[in-house]
Amino acid sequence: MTFFNHFWTRSTLTVALTVAIAACSSAPEKPQPAALPAVTGQLAVQKVWNHTVGAVTTPLLASVHGDQVAVASTLGQVVLINASTGQEVWRLKLDSLVQAGVGGDGQRFAVITQNNEVVAIEAGQVIWRHRLSAISHTPPLVAGGRVFVLTADRAVTALDGASGQKLWTQQRTGDPLVLQQAGLLIPFGDNLLAGWGGRLASLNPNTGAVRWETLVGSSRGTNEVERLVDLVAGVSRPGNTVCVRAFQSAVSCVDASRGNTLWTRPAQGHTGLDGDETLVFGAESDSKVVAWQRQSGQPAWTQEALRFRGLTAPLVLGRSVVLGDDKGSVHFLSRQDGQALQRLSTDGSAIVGKPVAAGQTLVVVTRTGGIFGFRPE
């Protein structure tokens, strides 16, 4: 997937206008991918269950809590699955299209509708709704008895988890365009980390007060589209180090305890990262997979055999780095050197969002709504 397959949003406090870049660009056709590399077969993986939830055409991500995983469809289906057994815990059909989600803490879950409403769910039932002033493409963060929301006008809002009452809002101005994909909103100790344009900010989750901000990606180019640098969902965060990606601009590691940038490297990707104590992994927009040294940011290895296959953000799982592609394949690469260990098929439609691990089960979701559980042996 290239830059021109993405959408951007022009956002104000009351209006969000979404336009496809492809409609106003003369982007070249996507290059044809090379033949898939042979796998070593060193890793055995078994499909253990599958479900359906309905088509996923908006920025929807799976939410994991222990052995349970929550998944939503754009048409409003929300399902909680026990990933160990494949059994549904509950399933709910909302009366609105879903724009962003799922966020959850294992008991309470939340999604955002295309009517700009936060919908909170417990035990398969809606417990409250809260209307936002702007659209959101980022899953709500449910933590500490609160629901936090990042909207396209670069506002972070905290809601009471039990009632939906607004507790505080903190906002930063920025470029008038934001990506129509999930942004960065995560907990870190007693901090709330949020992406504001190309900046990573730490907020007090109780008050919204800003503790620190650091620059990750700088605007560049001659027009609004080329200057997009929003931080994207998916980070690597062992210890006090948080490594993040600025859209089509940079990959950076930050000491989140102090807000100090440890290193920044130019990178042309649009999906998030994952990593371990020594390496950070990511896929560039041409589907080249790169591993960077966590301490220095120097490249450790590069895998080019999957180029132009529309890769998802990676998941570190055991000794593998797992990525989905736009044909429904799931690729397992060696964390050590990027060698192809295994490859699995789903339903032929694109893998959406990042593969996730729920307990011992790998879960992926497809564009047509297939939910697949795999278990490495």
Describe the fold and architecture:
With 377 residues, this protein is mainly β. It has a domain of 120 residues: Lipocalin, CATH 2.40.128. The chain is built from no helices and 34 strands. Strands 3-34-33-32 form a 4-stranded antiparallel beta sheet, with no helix packed on it. β4 and β5 form a beta hairpin. The radius of gyration is 19 Å and the shape is globular. The relative contact order is 0.15.
Low-confidence spans: pLDDT under 50, at least 5 residues?
1-8, 10-27
Query: How many helical elements?
Result: 0
Largest sheet: 4 strands, antiparallel
What general form does the structure show?
A: globular
Which features characterize this protein?
377 residues; mainly beta; Lipocalin; 34 strands; 49% strand; disordered N terminus
Note the topology.
Blueprint: E1 7-11, E2 16-20, E3 45-52, E4 63-65, E5 68-72, E6 77-82, E7 88-93, E8 98-104, E9 108-113, E10 117-122, E11 125-131, E12 141-143, E13 146-150, E14 155-160, E15 166-171, E16 177-179, E17 185-188, E18 191-196, E19 199-203, E20 210-215, E21 241-246, E22 250-255, E23 260-266, E24 274-275, E25 279-283, E26 289-293, E27 299-303, E28 315-317, E29 320-324, E30 329-334, E31 340-345, E32 351-358, E33 361-366, E34 370-376
Antiparallel strand pairs: 1-2, 1-16, 3-34, 4-5, 5-6, 6-7, 8-9, 9-10, 10-11, 12-13, 13-14, 14-15, 17-18, 18-19, 19-20, 21-22, 22-23, 24-25, 25-26, 26-27, 28-29, 29-30, 30-31, 32-33, 33-34
